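Collaboration report, partner site 2.

Our partner group contributed sequences for two proteins of shared interest, and the home lab folded both. The records are reproduced in the order in which they were received, starting with the first partner submission.
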Amino acid sequence: MKLQSIRLMEREPARALFYRANAALLERQYAQAREYVTQALAEGAPPEAVAPLLYHCICLLGDWEAARELVRKYGQTDMLQTALPSRFIQVLEHREWNARECVEVATWAYRNQSWVTAARLLTEALKRDPSFAEALNLLGELVVRYKDWSLPLTEQEKAALEKVVVQGSTTK
């Protein structure tokens, strides 16, 4: 298998990098997946094939500025089917999100197992509206699942999630 991977990298580096990006995404290594997709684009991968994956990774990482830039650069095409609806990105260009929009995006991140991004958005929603029940409930569920170890987290995600939850609890 490793030999086949090396041969593919020699023959078709863009395709090999795209495969690696998909594997990293499945392992919830969003930053690594983003890097592989960026390299695949540099190696000549067709943007219409790889930009949706890049957009998905960027949204899971919560890098809204990069998401806006990607939509501007490549258009909205199939990206809408694979990741965060671009209406949120468009809203962000003109103003900050309100608490409801933060929770909607957090719910999307939660469904996609991007726990840290979900927690960041939920704490942001609670900063804007401390009594917002939906944000409190989802953040509570996230914390309970974290505390009872039912979230499949990497060590990096654990540290980041703890940091977000601690910061969120001290800023209220």
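Second partner submission, folded after the first:
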Amino acid sequence: MILIRWSFLPTVQSVYMSRTRNNLKTCMGAELEREREARQNIEARFEQFQQECEKERADQDAWRKNMEEMVKNIGKK
């Protein structure tokens, strides 16, 4: 049986706490990076969605204008 002197316990505990802190920092850093990437992905998809909506609105406006012109021309004939 190996006996550990009490004087060594704080050192062992401090090493353990230091490793635990480093592991937590690493895990938190990785989690923050994943969240940042997810946020950027969401922002990019939202930007793409807005652009698609604007294009669709422009296409509908052009179609409506063409239809109005056709109706005007039918009435003139």
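Feedback sent to the partner group on the second submission included the following. Residues 43 and 49 are 10 Å apart (CA to CA). Residues 15-76 form one domain.
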